[in-house]
């Protein structure tokens, strides 16, 4: 881990130079092309104490983020829901946050593209429709009660799009994932479309079965679950600080992708510190098996999620052109000999 982290830190100056100018001496038009300014004194970062945010949780717990940031102080806030993180960003309380796709879309759309930019991917996968054991097909859910974590959240949108496509009408209720587990065990709901580790908990603790693993609905099994967004004003003022955070994220992602027992222990330890309760080892292993840590934001899936949200009446318009700014990340990846990630034509112009 130290070799990866040290290599990235050693490439810092070269990567930022690459991000700040083109080969012919001119400048690009992305945020990455803006001149470097002095590092911020503090970076206020949000994340969820959740396995779908494993790279973020690990980056905080291991010190990868703080080491990459150097003299910039890392301050963290733990959120339970994407809308709360977006509101904190709108209020100027945080500078960056790891978050799911639909809250990011909403934050971008509601501010006419002024609030935030997505600067990296974090996680793909890790969401499923878990139902009572007796249910063997989606048709059996006609008229049944299905839970999702929150109105307009990523799983809520995915569930509504799926059932509409299948031509099956269900009653969707929005509630806390812990309540979904209790009600499934009590037989008061028929299933839930939930993220990890709750999908694993509904199976292992609630006696449910996976009817639909969401990755089976996407090309190559990839869709964005978590990505890193930065307040646009902060990105413009402190690109070097954002790039330092990205260096830490690259280091953390490389380690978390191995899914070793040591990584699981560090992540679970931080989850316990943040929430007061660690996950059971079997739940943790099951949840990690369903996740793909990745710096690729899987931008094509975000565009589809925006359309689904609009069709579900949860988004006024699905225009998200300019939501990505991947210049700083791609400069780092180029220097590290890693492939660039794509914004599916939705990057800043």
SSE blueprint:
Layout: H1 2-10, H2 12-20, E1 42-47, H3 54-62, H4 64-69, E2 73-78, H5 82-90, E3 96-99, H6 101-110, E4 116-125, E5 127-131, E6 145-148, H7 154-166, E7 171-174, H8 177-185, E8 191-195, H9 198-204, E9 209-213, E10 224-231, H10 232-237, H11 239-256, H12 261-275, H13 281-289, E11 291-293, H14 299-311, H15 327-335
Parallel strand pairs: 1-2, 1-3, 6-7, 6-8
Antiparallel strand pairs: 3-10, 4-10, 4-11, 5-8, 5-9
Helix pairs in contact: 1-11, 2-15, 3-11, 3-12, 5-6, 7-14, 9-13, 11-15
Give a quick precis of the structure.
This protein has 349 residues and is α/β, with parallel strands linked by helices. The chain is 43% helix and 17% strand. Helix 1 packs antiparallel against helix 11, helix 2 packs across helix 15 (327-335) and helix 11 (239-256) packs across helix 15.
Describe the structure.
The protein has 349 residues and is an alpha/beta fold. The chain folds into 2 domains: 2-125 and 222-335, D-Maltodextrin-Binding Protein, domain 2 (3-Layer(aba) Sandwich); 127-221, D-Maltodextrin-Binding Protein, domain 2. The protein is built from 15 helices and 11 strands. Strands 2-1-3-10-4-11 form a 6-stranded mixed β-sheet, sandwiched between helices. A 5-stranded mixed β-sheet has the order 7-6-8-5-9, sandwiched between helices. The longest helix is centred in the last third of the chain and has 18 residues, at 239-256. The radius of gyration is 20 Å and the shape is globular.
What structural keywords apply?
D-Maltodextrin-Binding Protein, domain 2; globular; alpha/beta; 43% helix
């Amino acid at each position: 881990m130290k070799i990866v982290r040290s290599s990235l830190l050693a490439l810092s100056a070269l990567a930022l130079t690459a991000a700040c100018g083109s080969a012919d001496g001119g400048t690009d038009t992305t945020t990455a092309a803006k001149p470097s300014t002095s590092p911020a004194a503090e970076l206020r970062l949000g994340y969820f104490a959740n396995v779908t945010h494993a790279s973020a949780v690990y980056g905080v717990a291991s010190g990868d983020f703080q080491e990459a940031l150097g003299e910039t102080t890392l301050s963290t806030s733990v959120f339970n829901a994407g809308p709360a993180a977006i509101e904190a960003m709108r209020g100027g309380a945080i500078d960056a946050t790891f978050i799911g796709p639909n809250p990011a879309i909403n934050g971008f759309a509601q501010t006419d593209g002024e609030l935030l930019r997505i600067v990296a991917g974090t996680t793909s996968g890790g969401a499923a429709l878990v139902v009572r054991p007796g249910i063997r097909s989606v048709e059996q859910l006609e008229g049944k009660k299905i839970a999702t974590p929150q109105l307009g959240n990523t799983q809520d949108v995915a569930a509504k799009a799926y059932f509409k496509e299948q031509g099956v009408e269900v009653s969707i209720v929005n509630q806390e994932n812990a309540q979904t587990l209790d009600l499934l065990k009590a037989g008061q709901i028929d299933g839930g479309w939930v993220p990890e580790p709750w999908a694993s908990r509904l199976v292992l603790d609630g006696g449910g079965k996976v009817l639909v693993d969401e990755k089976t609905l996407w090309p190559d099994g990839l869709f964005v679950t978590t990505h890193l967004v930065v307040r646009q004003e902060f990105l413009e003022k402190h690109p070097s600080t954002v790039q330092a955070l990205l260096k830490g994220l690259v280091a953390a992602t490389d380690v978390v992708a191995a899914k070793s027992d040591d990584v699981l222990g560090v992540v679970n330890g931080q989850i316990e510190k943040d929430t007061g309760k660690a996950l059971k080892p079997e739940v943790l292993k099951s949840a990690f098996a369903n996740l793909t840590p990745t710096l690729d934001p899987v931008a094509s899936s975000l565009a589809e999620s925006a359309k689904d949200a609009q069709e579900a009446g949860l988004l006024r318009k699905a225009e998200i052109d300019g939501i990505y700014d991947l210049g700083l990340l791609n400069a780092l990846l180029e220097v590290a000999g890693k492939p660039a990630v794509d914004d599916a034509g939705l990057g800043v112009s």
